[in-house]
Specification:
180 residues; OB fold (Dihydrolipoamide Acetyltransferase, E2P); two-stranded antiparallel sheet; 10 strands
Amino acid sequence: MLRFSRFRSLRPNTGFLWLLIAVAAVTALAIRHALQGPQARRSFGGYARIVDGDSLVVAGIEVRLHGIDAPELFQRCSREGREVRCGRDSARALIAMVAGQPVTCEQRDIDRYGRTVALCRAEDVDLGRAQVLAGHAVAYGAYYQDEAMARAARRGLWAGEFIRPREWRDRHRGGAAPQS
């Protein structure tokens, strides 16, 4: 026969139990945050301010369009032997697509500059895909078939000669882009 008289109580220490619950809750939140990380998808929307051919600001969030790389704003290309402002043209094409409509975005990632990388739409138009199809951007991780179609039809950038935006940035890193 067991004697319980030697023990003060059979109840667990309530302070220890609360500490255990707090540690478990903090651990669960940390695991959830780690699993979501920067890849966590969230949706947001509003009216957009266009920065360049693949960047915009929506609801105060700086966004880079997922899957594309557009010429930098001051980047120039050549078409039929003359210089064209392909960076400006790309930005203007994006402005025309948005045309005062609300834009909805779904976050895909965060880039190395802290910008949200997102798939954005105006009405039902995927803005990144539309830029690539029109030849105003090159595929960058997505939309390769659309780029092939734009190239075959000689649309936008593909109607002349250009330096890929990434290469152009590498060449012009460290100095301000010429303005004229």
